[in-house]
Amino acid sequence: MKKLLVVDDNKQNLYMAEVLLSSNGYQVELAANGIEALKKARASSPDLIIADILMPGMDGFALCREWKQDETLKAIPFIFYTATYTDPEDEKFALGLGADRFIVKPVAPENLVAAIREVLEKFNANHPVSDNKDAHKEDVYLKQYNQALIHKLEDKLAQLEASNQALEKEILERKHAEQKITQLERQFAQSQKMEAIGTLAGGIAHDFNNILLAIMGHAEIALLKNCEGETSEKHLKEVLNACDRAKDLVNQILTFSRQTNIVRKPIQTKVIIKEALKLLRSSLPTTITLRQDLKSDGRILANPTQIYQVMMNLCTNASFAMKERGGIIDVILTDVDLDTSFVSAFQNVPPGAYQKLEIIDTGIGIAQSQLAHIFEPYFTSKQKGEGTGLGLSVVRGIVKDTGGIITVHSEPRKGSTFTVFFPTFHGEFAAIETQNKILKGNGEHVLFVDDEPALIEIGVEQLKRLGYQVTAFRDSQAALKSFKERPDAFDFVITDMTMPQLTGMIFAKELLEIRPELPVILCTGFSDEITEEKAAKIGISALLKKPFLLYELSKTIRQAFGN
């Protein structure tokens, strides 16, 4: 069996050569550079050597020169096999050193094997060894060697430059692709939230109508009692309670539907689940009973809107499974410890303390053939128009982002159980302020601006009761004109956000250009244009969200003054 010595600094090239030549009946020995090749050849002579050119330590040209000057090796055939070839002079130089063949990569495997066989056959036929006497002259050799090596290096540099440009292009394309994927994921998540809101629309209308009935009924009775000289305090308190419920309902809808960046914070899971179940309860048919057993008071590190989304999707799926015959949905939240044997079945999930959320229904169940696919995007067993197939895929993504686990157990006609494990959060969290004390003013003069007559009327009354002097305007341009005429007459300003002519933000900017230190409070019912960060950036002292109670208004004013 003929022995071949293959020399290349690229491990992959060595491996490929070994596989090819071994399969063709040759014994193969490998070396990573010229120095190693000479050492191995002198220890055990090969029948033929195949060498790359550009290698560390000793390159192919230097190896060939040493090889042909060594009395024990010079008769052994030498083949150059290189991927960097820029000039016919390189081949001429290589052959001048005594090489028997100069092969340029890439070449078909069968052609390489044929070339090796041909060189060996010539060697066996006692062909004279190639010899160039000029190559042994040091000055001639160095000149030719330097020229050939420069050609090789220039070609290699050109290849590297092309590779770098291709890599930069690939990185840029990948960044664009990642940005596109992120954008699509946000759109998918938002469409899912909108789909859920659509499902809950009937329940939301039901809750609002109940709240409005309570407000109208108690207000009407209070008026009648007032006319008859009776006290109406109890009914007025019920009006405020009903308004508070309406405020919570609006906040829940806005929180769930708003498209924002995902920010995680410590949240009490039980509170979010209760709020979600309030929205869900009234949207479910009377044939479905919703039960809750929330035993855990712990916290998790998550985004509240996303936990809403998990609840909405899992519970609406459960109700859909029972739409024909009705049934029971149980929502259970407990604290558990997961050991290594349990979490080892899941990737990158450590053992420890978790909150276990179970959504159990008595519906039609899920076929075993579908269970393996239910978390895949767009997979759905529903009819066209009944769902997008994104719900459970989004849920799994949310759970995974929190570091949690979601599993499902289901049998046809025996219902389904979706189990979610959220890692328990043990860090510190901010305490919630519960004090509702009304803070009085000291006769400060306020410029109050709102385009709604009813809000001007009640706002003036509230501010006067808090101990402030009030100048009110429905027209923001008229208010600005008044301020410019007497800029030092006002101690602070309260303005609505959405108004004709000048919006609250533009109005505030105009005021602050005249008096940069002026406390300005911006009120808004809902706006995507303004956040607390944006408000602070332009100099607004506080952002007050409607509707608000008297103690909230009083506290915000004192905060604007810095006390």
List key phrases describing it:
17 strands, 563 residues, five-stranded parallel sheet, alpha/beta
Largest sheet: 7 strands, mixed
How confident is the prediction overall: mean pLDDT?
83
Count of alpha/pi helices:
17
How far the N terminus sits from the C terminus, by CA atoms, comes to 95 Å
Uncertain parts: 128-136, 384-389
Can you give a write-up of this model?
With 563 residues, this protein is of the alpha/beta class. It has 17 helices and 17 strands. The protein has helices at 11-23, 34-43, 60-69, 88-96, 109-124, 138-227, 233-257, 269-281, 304-320, 340-343, 368-371, 391-401, 453-465, 476-485, 504-514, 532-537, 550-560, and strands spanning 3-7, 27-31, 48-51, 78-82, 101-104, 265-268, 288-294, 299-302, 327-338, 352-361, 405-410, 416-425, 445-449, 469-473, 492-496, 520-524, 542-545. The strands form three sheets. Strands 6, 7, 8, 9, 10, 11 and 12 form a seven-stranded mixed sheet that branches. The chain has a five-stranded parallel sheet with strand order 2-1-3-4-5, sandwiched between helices. α6 (138-227) crosses α9, α8 packs across α9 (304-320) and α14 packs parallel to α15. The chain starts with a strand and ends with a helix. Residues 128-136 and 384-389 have low confidence and may be disordered.
